[in-house]
Give the backbone structure.
Amino acid sequence: MKRSPDHEDEILDVRGHQDPDRNRLTPVVQLPPEAALTVVEALSGLVRAAHREEGERPAPTGRLKRAQVFEEGDVFMLEPPFPGFFADRYLMDFYDTAARDICSRMHLHTGLRFVRMMTGPDTTIRVSSLSPITVRPPTGPFAPLSCFADDLPGTPDGVRRERHNVIVPPNSWVDMQIPRGVSHQFNAVGPNAVIDSVHPEESIETLREGMSGYRMMAQTIFLAKDRSPAVTCADTGAPETTPPR
């Protein structure tokens, strides 16, 4: 649980954090560039339309604000929870890390997540964690993924934490299962990337924590105080064999 559920920038000292489990990533399908771009543009278009509407007609006080903002991109709550169904689903239109010259931070959630990441042409997503990421067998033909480790940037002086990375290639769909409390970090390099994410425990955690108002960042705890420049997350590493499952 968070110390303060209303705090949208709560920080956990990375020196003491140990992941209780590992993220699991499943390569799903690779598409022709035109098909991949059509899917990504259609879904990101929903997010952009929702944010335009929020700007023109803001959600009234006390009503659920479905167009919100994460560090990695703008989001739209496609399917809100309701009594008896304590889960939500959102779409995220990724920011282009290279264009903004800034990376999102390593973080964790107080509830588990299911994430489908989709890329279009000329775009990759770097998925990172403080623990090795289990890459499951692909569901069909899929090129080998680039997997490598480096040092987590922005740690306190004298502290080294290894960061494990998997690169989602262009024109690909990749699923990721994120257990509760496990560190992760997403950074897209390129303009065409979107996430379709399900939070099965979102509103249960919100109610339990007594959050005043429903904000999707309420279950997020960061493992760094500041965001780092794009150079720390834009590298896709040398292609390597997919790591052991």
